From TrEMBL:
Keyword set, alphabetical order: Membrane, Transmembrane, Transmembrane helix
Keyword Phosphoprotein: no
GO CC terms in record: membrane
GO molecular function terms listed in the Swiss-Prot or TrEMBL record: potassium ion transmembrane transporter activity
Protein name, entry field: K+ potassium transporter integral membrane domain-containing protein
């Protein structure tokens, strides 16, 4: 906005549906690659050696119930409905949240507000003043008064960024290694132990070598692969439901989560770390927001990834 004339300059046009659908298609290859391949190792990691399932399949239902509700509560409710709205001029991620807080409250240790920004932020129109007694105003004044809270906020932003970086380093190795470990079904143990690690390293080198081509090309390259993968596991899942156990829909009831923990006791609590693997990569929905748009990420998840 021009502070002198009050006229908006360069107001971004709304994206067409064609552009949004193309971005949604590209996001499958960039944003949802990790989240879509999580089924590779969730059940294998959850069922530890000390957990055995009975003939009633209550343990199977319990794990499936945990997986379903974890995917529903975190990626769908948390990210799609809440977190994606907290963008910083279209950018997402931990630093984007911190930058947004610094512009609305004086909590930054470096001067990041220009004189023009201060004039605009201090502008008030009669009848539209925010009540000073609101929770947001109280929290803002509290953060501005206490330097300790400002340092804590900065440390949390740095820790959150480090966790995303660590996740980005570790999860590709876990995903690729888990996929390559499937070769043991067609190879002997003597040959498999010499093949598994080198093949995983070669695949990882090839994947990271493609990164410099940019999001646009990488998205179009990997989107059909992820789409094919999701369609395959969907078709296999539907076939197995009707062929083996049509009553598996009962696992949607949270009651089986309680039954699972009651029967497995300590082993069940320890196995919850494996359940968490089903949402690895969901943070990319917000971190990669700058490459796409809110609507495209929401469309891709709700129409393809979540149902699959």
């Amino acid at each position: 906005m021009d502070p002198e004339t009050g006229v908006l300059k360069g107001f971004p046009k709304k994206e067409s549906w064609r552009t949004t659908l193309i971005l949604a298609y590209q996001s499958l290859g960039v944003v949802y690659g990790d989240l879509s391949t999580s089924p590779l190792y969730v059940y294998k990691s959850t069922f530890a050696e000390d957990i055995r399932h009975s003939e009633t399949n209550e343990e199977i239902y319990g794990v499936l119930s945990f997986v379903f509700w974890t995917i529903t509560l975190v990626p769908l409710l948390k990210y799609v409905l809440i977190v994606l709205r907290a963008d910083d001029n279209g950018e997402g991620g931990t630093f984007a949240l911190y930058s947004k807080l610094c512009r609305h409250a004086r909590v930054s240790f470096l001067p990041n507000v220009q004189v023009v920004d201060e004039e605009i932020s201090a502008y008030k129109k009669d009848g539209f003043d925010q009540p000073e007694k609101s929770i947001g105003s109280k929290l803002k004044s509290t953060l501005e008064k206490h330097k300790v809270l400002q340092r804590v906020l900065l440390v949390l932003a740095l820790i959150g960024t480090c966790m995303v970086i660590g996740d980005g380093v570790l999860t590709p190795a876990i995903s690729v290694f888990s996929a390559v470990s499937g070769l043991e079904l067609s190879m002997s143990k003597e040959h498999h132990k010499y093949v598994e690690v080198p093949v995983a390293c070669i695949v990882l080198l090839c994947l990271f070598a493609l990164q410099h081509y940019g999001t646009h090309r990488v998205g179009f390259l990997f989107a059909p692969i992820i789409m094919t993968w999701l369609l395959c596991i969907s078709a296999i899942g539907v076939y197995n439901i009707f062929h083996w156990n049509p009553h598996v829909y009962q696992a949607l009831s949270p009651y089986y989560m309680y039954t699972f923990l009651k029967k497995t006791q300590r082993g069940g609590w320890m196995s919850l770390g494996g359940i968490l693997l089903c949402i690895t990569g969901s943070e990319a929905m917000f971190a990669d927001l700058g490459h796409f748009s809110q609507l495209s990420i929401k469309i891709a998840f709700t129409s393809v990834v979540y149902p699959s």
